[in-house]
Amino acid sequence: MAPLLVIVPFFSIIIMNLFPRKLMQYTSFICLGFLSLAQTYLVLARPEWFWHKNVDLVDSMFSFRYSVDEIALVLLLCIGVVVFVTLLSARAMIPDVRQRVNFKNLLLVSLIGMNATVLVKDIFSLYVFIEITAVSSYIMIAMNKDERALEGAFKYLILSAIATVMMLASISLMLLLTGGTTFTAVSAGLDVAGRGLFVRIAIGLFLCGLFIKSGLVPFHGWLPDAYSAAPAPASVLLAGVVTKVSGVYVLIRLAISVFAFDNSLQGLLMFVGAVSVLTGAFAALTQSDFKRMLAYSSISQVGYIILGLGCATPLAIFGAVFHLFNHAIFKSLLFINAASVEKELGTTDMEKMGGLAQKMPVAGVSSVVGLLSTAGIPPLAGFWSKFIIILALWSAGRFVYAWIAVLASLLTLAYFLSMQRKVFFGKLKAGFENIRESSAGLIISQAVLAIITVGLGLFFPFIVPWR
Amino acid sequence: MTTRLVRSVVGLAMVSAVVSILIFRLNSPLAAVFELSVCAGLISVIFVTTISFTQRLTPEKLELRRKQRFDKYSYLPVVLLAVGILLMIFKPNPDFPLPPVPKEQDARNIIWHLRHVDLLGQILVILAGVFGVVILFKEPRK
């Protein structure tokens, strides 16, 4: 019944838009809230009847070939949680009812796109759903219609279009080489074809497309502009799951299930990962805009995931997927912190801030949780995932990369401590006396994400048994 | 190279029409119809609609842009030439056994019966486009 994660939201859009506009703001909230929470519950409870039974009606309507493994479940969980907190922050951050309803429509389209990307096992369908997620993202980024928003959306659109062309060319080549587009057909076909020039071109084109979608160095140009110019809820969604699903997850899925690791692929992934880790961290150090700093931090953290993936041992891949989950949670948390501050101050310039933790204790405390987790400080969730990646790199004899990962963690700590000092700690700046903690939606979002980060860190040894 | 955008669009549509004739000659009539209707037809309409929203540049700005454009793309002929020479030297040949050509399948059967999920995707792209137009172009009532 897993295809229901795609089909139910699809029909929900149609039903939701049939209600009168006044009712739509409530129905859309209830509908999206229900869908995201139900998805989270289904992944956590994993009921047999949902994941392992077929529905004849669905099968007769849609020839939906799908597969669900542990990695897919982790991603579906991320999507459920992040879509829920995005919904809550949209309620607080988009005051205009009409725009908010439109945003929820796009959020639902994005939810379908991401769920389907995780479930399908066909490279062409994968491409189709990545594009659906991307199209809804362009519009979300441009929603404010000011110059920065349009520039951010335009940059994302152009680079994403280049990625699209690359992926489509790669799919065409793979169809020519292997005679099919399903994961099994392409994987078997590539095994037979070997690693000739055309196979390498096909794999290289797909990888470049996915590097653009993931915002990895040197294809990261669009990411800081898009993240910082987008409305706050869209930034949360983009940083939390969109780039993870349409870039990083697809990279992990294809590397494991289709391309098969070899020395050159591993070397390329680790090199790109390490360069992204360092470039993102150094660039974040020099930023004065809160959201741009978080965007560069995202590039660095995604670099860790790719570094782990490139190592390709089971432990490293586990670490990469775990860091992907953690990053989705703590980066959403930090972007909601930024949204809370932006809502109260009307700016994201860190030079104009100071001492905000006195007036916004929830944002202050949860941002500390987010920063410590990002920097890999025990006992938070981010510590375990970074520790596992570094451990796996060391065990595989990749000492240089392991050292890069450790040193970049120190850089992460440095730029986040600088952010904390400028934004939340120190003396309260004049004119901020009347600032209050932001709305209930943002407080709940921050609390939920901080609890997940702390809880997962504290109970990790009990959740994942070490043998 | 024309400076008039509408002429460029007409040129693009003509190229698409020629490509659709080539596809037709290669025994793919349905693909040719898609190429003609979507690339030569629909996309040209979208381009012309967008151009109708634009404004003409002043002669000074036009001259400046023209100079900048030549500076920006002056390296392109060199790159093209280099790629051409490299291809002539290395002559890449497919070094893989091509899979057997499957029996001819009706494109309609493939679209309507074998790729339901992608059809769902197409509907969603159209939906996203509609939401995009509503969000970005519809002005709120005062």
Can you describe this structure?
The complex is a heterodimer of chains A (467) and B (142). With 467 residues, chain A is mostly helical. Chain A has two domains: 260 residues, no CATH class; 207 residues, no CATH class. Chain A has 19 helices and no strands. In chain A, α11 crosses α14 and α13 packs antiparallel against α14. The longest helix of chain A has 32 residues. The mean pLDDT of chain A is 89. With 142 residues, chain B is an all-alpha fold. Chain B folds into two domains: 94 residues, no CATH class; 38 residues. Chain B is 74% helix and 0% strand. Chain B contains six helices and no strands. The longest helix of chain B is centred in the N-terminal third of the chain and has 24 residues. Chain B is flat and about 60 Å long. Chain B starts with a helix and ends in a 5-residue tail after the last helix. The model of chain B has no long low-confidence stretch (mean pLDDT 80). The interface between A and B is large, with 45 and 30 residues.
Which features characterize this protein?
heterodimer; A: 467 residues; mainly alpha; 2 domains; 19 helices; B: 142 residues; 74% helix; flat
How would you summarize what this structure contains?
Chain A has 467 residues and is mostly helical. Chain A has helices at 4-16, 21-45, 48-51, 56-61, 70-93, 97-119, 123-142, 147-178, 183-193, 197-214, 222-229, 232-259, 263-285, 290-311, 314-345, 361-375, 381-395, 399-423, 440-463. The A-B interface holds A 6, 10, 13, 61-65, 96, 98-99, 102, 105-106, 109, 112-113, 116, 120, 122, 124-125, 128-129, 131-132, 135-136, 138-139, 142-143, 145, 176-179, 189, 192-194, 196-199 and B 92, 94-100, 102, 113-118, 120-125, 127-129, 131-132, 134-136, 140.
